[in-house]
Please model this.
Amino acid sequence: MQSADNPSSRSEASKPQPPIRVAVDAMGGDYAPGETVKGAVAALDTHDIELLLVGDAGAVEGELDKYDLEGKAVKVVGSVGKISDDEHPMHAFRQKPEASIIVGTKLVKTGQADVLVSLGSTGASMATAALVLGMMDGLERPCIGGPFLGLAPRTVLMDLGSNVDCRPSQLLNFAALGSVFAHRFLGTENPRVALLSVGSEKSKGNRQVQDSYQLFEESHLNFVGNVEGMDFFNDRADVIVCDGFVGNILIKFTEGMGTALGGYLGRLLSPYMSDEQMRGVFNELWQTTNLPRTMGGPLFGVNGAVIVGHGSSRADEVAGAINTAVRYVEMGLLDSMRE
Amino acid sequence: MQSADNPSSRSEASKPQPPIRVAVDAMGGDYAPGETVKGAVAALDTHDIELLLVGDAGAVEGELDKYDLEGKAVKVVGSVGKISDDEHPMHAFRQKPEASIIVGTKLVKTGQADVLVSLGSTGASMATAALVLGMMDGLERPCIGGPFLGLAPRTVLMDLGSNVDCRPSQLLNFAALGSVFAHRFLGTENPRVALLSVGSEKSKGNRQVQDSYQLFEESHLNFVGNVEGMDFFNDRADVIVCDGFVGNILIKFTEGMGTALGGYLGRLLSPYMSDEQMRGVFNELWQTTNLPRTMGGPLFGVNGAVIVGHGSSRADEVAGAINTAVRYVEMGLLDSMRE
Model:
């Protein structure tokens, strides 16, 4: 983990820093506010943070009553309503101006929070972040990325999100942001950047990839050419770039396969192991095929720190996303991205 | 397995049929001609077939000398040269008119063989088949597909090949061909057809999928809408359609994951199992993530029966592809596709 080369990094400051202020959309996620609040409270045990829980004040306080918060820095910030997955983000943005994701994002915008953690609708998080925080220069839409395979925990895939029809210049932006992330967050020197395609030769791929190849070659990135589907497991590249259509299919396919393999291996392994031993194996297998669930990932390209977690996060995963948020702020990643 | 409802099916004929004539490109595949010939000879033990081995006569006969072929129907058909993966198929087609894949495909065209099995370059197989055999009405390019996951052995994915930028009408063709295959080869009644996308709603997906949705809705297919990456494991559809860019990435990703999981599980399971027990588990795991290697798949849309296997096939996989070829002919699948 590298941060020492960043003069603005909070982690290497010579005097004690105030605690990082983490806003959490307490209404976001399939198991909100219960699991979301539980995970946020758990994160207080491992990090010196100030927690800003955004949500319906009554509901959130009701959850908080379950825990001993003596000496803990927790505030509730009231909001009204939430934006769900099946609403059009822009429409909902106008209809529900006090929705939890909007109030939470504004806390980052106004400097009242250092980072926002959202487990709610990714589309709503992206749209709200773009509108409230604004995009970095030269970027049009936020993207999502990061390591997504426990079998290749240092390989970053960009974009995992909803940028489904991308021009080459957008793919190049994903590559640049992923490169900074791999370097600063994962400590990879001079990250190798590749385009995901159907063959390693320059001539292989669809029009989008073929048009992007030359742009990547001419960039300042450490471009190593095209990689193929099996190369996620071959350490051929540190940052693998595709559009969000392909990335989203891959990440969901991986999750589904992890779950299905659990059942399949159960039948295969039951002669050799006890149920409890198998549970341990399956738990590891699940984690390795559900990496983004365990740690969340930053929303790249917006002028503010936002970490998005999986909608189906339980308390452990909420705490994992908050852990990522704290490290993201400590490492001064946002400033690196802007550069 | 259904064939009884097809009057032209060879398998339900009332009088004895002559053996199916299977041409094999003996020069195709990473381990040709040794493993290719070995696998083809092995297939003679399980099927009443006549084998036409196409290749350099001296090399093929040298391999055949290793086996006892008493009473077996094996012929060698001479060819000169082979087309490799890194050659442009159209260029090679003109430069090497007697290459093994071309001679083999012509055996099907002229009726000297019922089916061709190719383990060589998929691009060369596709181009040669399109040129020599011609395309079915309304189709422009061959496509490849079939079950690709041992965890979902009855779910057909189309296209796995090199149709990388597809119009909606092409995706619809893939769907129709995959539907016939699922019905006739896998015995699925009224196969459910889906588009692979990033959300189940009609509005979700890239332009290609959105433009295809309505065309699929208006077709005679049993279209059930969009599915997502995890739905391969949920039995949501029998035929899942995507372009060859996405399909090729998915199939190679799956192969890579199977191999990587083998090593990963080895560390996890070694406390519980002997090396030999683990080898059994890994062998099953490998097969479930490498299904197309074990059985090959038909080249869809061409006017002739061609089965393509994986380039890295060993003898067992070559025999598996020949098994698929025999069933394909027995079931009269080509006629069903034409309809």
In short: Chain B has two domains: 1-142+301-339, 144-292. The mean pLDDT of chain B is 90. The radius of gyration of chain B is 20 Å. Chain B touches chain A through 50 residues (CB under 8 Å).
